[in-house]
Structure formats: structure tokens, C-alpha cells
Amino acid sequence: MLSALFKHCYDTDDVLYLQRGSPANSDIFIFNGAVIPLNRKIIKELKLILNRSKSKEIIDLSIESSEDEAFWDTWESWEYERQLRIDAGKDLVLLNTSRLGLELLTHSCAHLAFSFAGHSHFDWY
């Protein structure tokens, strides 16, 4: 599911908002900061608007049924450096990434889902 969400964000440049289920958890915003620069003030305004919104749009996500191993030969590992910035707090997590970072996250999550390699592979990147 995460792979499909990251791919959707990569394809559309949408801002993804995952609302927490309880006060003990955090809200998550996933976005391409180069295309849509967001700060905490704008995020707070977005949350208020979304929480008051009555319309609910359904987005169809296709779950990848395989992993593309060729992707890992495309880029050198140093090119992934500084492609992802995570700002985590008690109530809010901002995952600000570039297009290359979203592509990396898409393929990393797909790899985890289909290889059963565990989180050690993801943490390495």
C-alpha cells in the first residue's frame, strides 16, 4: 500500500495526508517539496480545511504485483543522498522528498513487500 501511495504522489505531485487514528499517533504529510513547498503554518491551515471538508474523493490505487529489479541499476547510491527529509514531531510527521526520493520510496516499499527482506534493507537507504 505504501508503494502505491508513493507512486501516486510521484505521478501526480499530490500532497498525501494520512490522518492519525488516535491522539497517541501522528498525522503524516507526504509531498514533493520542490513542486509544492509546505511549511508548518500552511500544513496547519490544510489540516483545518480537510477536517472541516464534507466531500470525500475516492482515489483508485493500483497495488504493484511485482518488483522492478532493473530500477536498482539505474542510479548510483550517492544520487539518493539528500533526496528525503523527514521532520517528525509528537503530532505531525512531514515527509518532504524529491521526485527521485519518491521513486526510491516506491521501489523500496515494493521490494520489502515482495522480498520479505524486512526493514533492514529500507533503513540502509
Notes on the structure:
There is one protein chain. Helices cover 38% and strands 16% of the residues. It is built from four helices and four strands. It has helices spanning 2-12, 40-52, 99-115, 119-124; strands at residues 16-18, 27-32, 84-88, 92-97. A four-stranded mixed sheet has the order 1-2-4-3. Helix 1 (2-12) packs antiparallel against helix 3. The mean pLDDT is 79.
- Strand residue percentage: 15-25%
Lateral arrangement of strands in the main beta sheet: 1-2-4-3
Q: Please report the total strand number as a whole number.
A: 4
Spatial gap, N to C terminus: 19 Å
* Class per helix and strand makeup: alpha+beta
Question: What would you call the shape?
Answer: globular
Order of helices and strands: HEEHEEHH
Q: What is the percent of helical residues? A: 25-40%
Mean pLDDT: 79
Question: If helices are DSSP runs of H or I spanning 4 or more residues, what is the number of helices?
Answer: 4
> What oligomeric assembly is this protein in?
single chain
* Unreliable stretches: none
For the largest beta-sheet, the strand count, sense and barrel status come to: 4 strands, mixed
Kindly provide the radius of gyration, computed on alpha-carbon positions and rounded to a whole number of angstroms.
Answer: 15 Å
